[in-house]
Amino acid sequence: MFTGIDPLVHINVMSHIFLYGPPGTGKSTIGKILARNLNLPFMDLDEVIESKADKSISRIMEQQGEPAFRDLESSALQEVVGHAYREASPEHSEGDSVTPHVIALGGGALLREENRRQAESCGTVVLITAELSTLLEHLKNDSGKRPLLVGDLQEKLASLLEARKDHYSSFAIQVHIKDKTSEQSASQIQTMLGRFHLSAMGEYDVIVQNDGINGLGNMLQSRGVHNPIVVTDQNVAKFHLSRVAASLQAAGYRTNSIVIPAGEEHKNLELVSLLWKDFLENEMDRRSTVIALGGGVVGDMAGFAAATYMRGIDWVCVPTTLLSMVDASLGGKTGVDLPQGKNLIGSFHPPRLVLADPQLLNTLPQREFVSGMAEVVKHGILCDPDLFEKCSHGVDWVKENLEEIVKQAMAVKIGIIEEDPYEKGFRAALNLGHTVGHAVELASGFMLRHGEAVAIGMVVEAEFAERTGVAEKGLSNVISDALSGLGLPVEIPEELSREEIIRAMQVDKKKDAAKIRFALPAEIGKVQFVDVSDLELVIEYPSV
Predict the structure, then answer these.
(1) Catalytic: 141?
(2) pTM of the entire structure?
(3) What's the pLDDT tens digit per position in 257-266?
(4) All structural domains of the chain
(5) Strand order in the sheet with 195-198
(6) For this structure, is 283 an active site residue?
(7) Number of neighbours of residue 294 by Cβ within 10 angstroms
(8) Among 479, 406, 489, 387, which residue's Cα sits nearest to residue 441?
(9) Of 352, 379, 407, 413, catalytic
(10) Which of 34, 344, 427, 504 is the most buried (most CB within 10 A)?
């Protein structure tokens, strides 16, 4: 799925996306979809050239020859990049911010070394590839518009591909379009680059970037953020608060912060009330912005405090745990716990920005990291068998491919919440493992971490799916093996009261009248909704 990516390649998510590759790969079509998905401007370099010359490329080549065309191409590339800077700042200078564009390039636009250097210095080049047969199919009615392919199309195209073989293969980030629609190719590029724009419930960007925390201040500045205040917990503050403060300070912001106690047991209305008080003391008004720096607890509470302060102010989520990156930070859900259950008080209040920096996960304790993998596995079970298979390689493999895993897992949830932002339909599938998991977590007095409880919940619910005929026998073993291979628990601890777990399930927020709707795994990549009234059937008691 991530063809040709070098793990050392740095992707600058604040810069242009250049789509490059042989003729017939659909760069312009994919580029327009990608630009629409990311809410970015789109440019086609060939169209810029034709507009400047007031004639078609085929006519330019016919009248002036290929060298003259390449000169025009180089000039047009410089103009496109300069146009983006002028949009960002009419008085720009080197180092100024740039308005990112999606730019489709001609099939030979980067043959000149100076063109390639310019593109790679101000953006990320994504090479789009295809088999010869696919290209021929795409070009069969269009070859007359491409002067280098006039004549025997198959012969000319094969010769061109051979001549540029080494050139094309030298690009690190590649997408092969075989058996994919243009929409699927655009989505794959988004996942590879870690760039998403959500619009179903408020407009905001989700960015995945290693060391992205260093650029947080500039990201906020480019989005017009005012008077930010950082809310974090005692554990996270020790590792990451100073870097966030430095980034904000470099962008010209004051560096106010609120440090709260760490742990789910503090996720309550009393602490939210203290946050409101601190907001007032820091003179925050309706234009101010809360930055939630931490895991799911910090995000839920800071987001809820922002949602309810002065009837709602902006917030930005900077998740620092794997669990919060791939799950809690996405979707706009905020809330706090009551003694009777988790997240029983809350609201939908989407952030202005989610910045996930996988490098922050290096400071996570092993148990916390493994806990987060439960949600990654869940996303694979829901609709990405490839992701599930990768999780089955074990925790060491995952850590070696962490950025890829984070991007792919986040892409799954983003796709679901964009389709169903207010949980009226398929989004409820994200509750897989959570109805039992939340109850087990509560019954354990939060001695079990959220991901550990969800892992147990997924196996218990998979076993129930088998007993009710929703899934074939053996699915629960497949899921259990993947989870236990990552170091996650897969059985309810014997010391926990089954009666207490069932009572906790009965007050679950997913309860509808006398029934609870479960999202049960039918197979890897597919779930089925089942309404259950007798909860004792879900948790099979061990035989005596």
Answers:
(1) no
(2) 0.86
(3) 999 999 888 9
(4) 16-193 (3.40.50.300), 197-364 (3.40.50.1970), 410-537 (1.20.1090.10)
(5) 195-198, 204-208, 353-356, 314-319, 288-294, 226-233, 256-260
(6) no
(7) 30
(8) 489
(9) 413
(10) 34
